[in-house]
Design goal:
Blueprint lengths: L20 H11 L5 H17 L4 H18 L4 H16 L4 H13 L3 H14 L7 H10 L3 H13 L7 H14 L3 H14 L3 H17 L3 H14 L4 H13 L3 H11 L6 H13 L3 H20 L5 H11 L2 H14 L3 H13 L3 H11 L11 H13 L3 H14 L7 H12 L11
Helix pairs in contact: 1-2, 1-3, 2-3, 3-4, 3-5, 4-5, 5-6, 5-7, 6-7, 7-8, 8-9, 9-10, 10-11, 11-12, 11-13, 12-13, 13-14, 14-15, 15-16, 17-18, 17-19, 18-19, 19-20, 19-21, 20-21, 21-22, 21-23, 22-23
Length: 443
């Protein structure tokens, strides 16, 4: 593309609301700012033509590979990931290992595939190659988070903020800051950062991404009207915003607007469904006693997971969660043990603890469930699901006080967190009964 090579590495090109889709997409794949699907498809077509004409153009290969990653992630089409890997590795072959843009793309690809060790490797190489380029930092923060290395995630964020990125990059940096704050349990600070990011966004697709994030934060704290407002605003700006579509359906289900929720879920999973959306829809059907329709979604989930794995995605966490609740808990335990060894993040700790509980191993389950909710071990995120899992496990171990406290906490954080497990939490609390009216122990 004319003039691409003269762009400063630390300053994205202007991409205001009137900028063309091609310019917006180029900003996305070069600097990690969300763009619309039509622009990505247009950019891919132009870059494919360019690399055919100039097969030694390393930057064109890197842009093409990164565009494949982003389109695959946004559209849920994992067949783009092998194409992305080929293009990005070709870029490395042409220019060599000191190719920050290709390394950034490989880090983004590894994150899309939930391969956090590879994302860390490529992210650290990219940072070493271009330490002043802000776009090298966010993938590395995500990689450290997925590996449970929260200390390095926070220090990398501090280094990113010290770079003082320009106005075009600032919304993406604020969004990354919000994610770190959310993981630390600083919900109000996370909301403030994402709100500012949405206000400062330079394109509709970018603003929609940050609004969807705000919707997710509102959902996590049980504020359904606020969540719905953000999800709907995101979809008005970008109808292809898949996270907002699923979030809107989830929120309507929490409000008891079941027919609307089912219609939205069915639309969301009609083409290239995300496995996690199929799991949510199946569980909603199950909560309504519609077991045949639930099993249909679970069957589709298995197919979608197979397709995802064929594209190189690590789906062990999702498979483990599914098997623990709807299949073979021991298979879940085996898969999640391996996943914990490879990338011991908080999500895996919670899932492994729950799988062990479902397999009848509550004592060992407690150690993992405690990790997921222990701030000193990185588990600062305020999650209704994690508190519910911990409370149920404590109840099985005859620890009524902590069990009651954590089950109440789960319902206080988000009383709508799961159509299947919220009733289980209420039932477990009822079985525990009221706090015994006993005098405090003497000194």
């Amino acid at each position: 593309l004319p003039g691409e090579g003269r762009q400063r590495a630390d300053r994205p090109p202007a991409a205001g609301p009137q900028a063309g889709t091609r310019a917006q997409a180029l900003t996305t794949v070069t600097y990690g700012v969300p763009a619309a699907l039509p622009g990505l498809t247009s950019l891919i077509g132009r870059q494919e033509a360019r690399v055919r004409a100039q097969p030694r153009d390393a930057r064109a290969w890197a842009v093409l590979g990164s565009a494949y990653v982003e389109r695959g992630r946004r559209a849920g089409d994992v067949s783009d990931y092998p194409r992305a890997e080929r293009a990005l590795r070709t870029s490395l072959e042409v220019r060599g290992t000191k190719n920050a843009q290709a390394l950034d793309g490989l880090a983004a690809l590894a994150l899309a595939r939930r391969d956090f060790p590879a994302a860390k490797q490529y992210g650290e190489q990219a940072l070493k190659s271009a330490p002043k380029q802000w776009s090298a930092y966010p993938p590395l923060i995500d990689a450290y988070t997925g590996l449970g290395d929260y200390k390095n995630a926070r220090s990398t964020l501090d280094k990113l903020l010290a770079l003082r990125p320009g106005a075009a990059a600032r919304p993406a940096v604020m969004a990354r800051t919000a994610a770190v704050y959310r993981d630390r349990g600083w919900r109000e600070d996370a909301v403030a950062q994402l709100t500012d990011a949405a206000a400062a966004a330079r394109t509709p697709a970018e603003q929609a991404a940050w609004l969807a994030g705000l919707g997710q934060l509102a959902w996590e704290r049980g504020d359904l009207p606020e969540a719905l407002r953000h999800f709907e605003a995101a979809l008005r700006l970008d109808p292809d915003q898949r996270a907002a579509r699923a979030g809107r359906a989830r929120t309507l289900a929490g409000q008891g607007r079941t027919s609307e929720a089912l219609a939205l879920y069915r639309a969301a999973v009609a083409k290239q469904p995300r496995p996690e959306d199929l799991l949510e829809l199946g569980e909603l059907y199950e909560s309504l006693g519609r077991s045949a329709l639930a099993e249909e979604q679970y069957g589709r989930l298995r197919t979608a997971v197979g397709r995802s794995v064929a594209g190189g995605v690590d789906e062990e966490l999702l498979i483990g969660r599914f098997e623990a609740d709807h299949g073979d808990p021991w298979e879940a335990v085996e898969r999640l043990r391996d996943e914990w060894e490879r990338q011991p993040g908080i999500e895996v700790a919670d899932a492994l603890g729950w799988a062990l509980h479902r397999a009848g191993e509550d004592q060992e389950a407690l150690s993992y469930a405690a990790v997921a909710t222990d701030k000193t071990k990185g588990g600062g995120v305020r999650s209704a699901l994690y508190s519910f899992h911990l409370g149920v496990i404590e109840g099985e171990l005859d620890r009524p006080g902590p069990a009651r406290r954590h089950l109440q906490e789960a319902l206080r954080i988000n009383p709508y967190f799961s159509p299947l497990q919220v009733p289980q939490a209420r039932e477990a609390l009822q079985e525990l009964g009221d706090v015994p009216d006993e005098p405090p122990p003497s000194e």
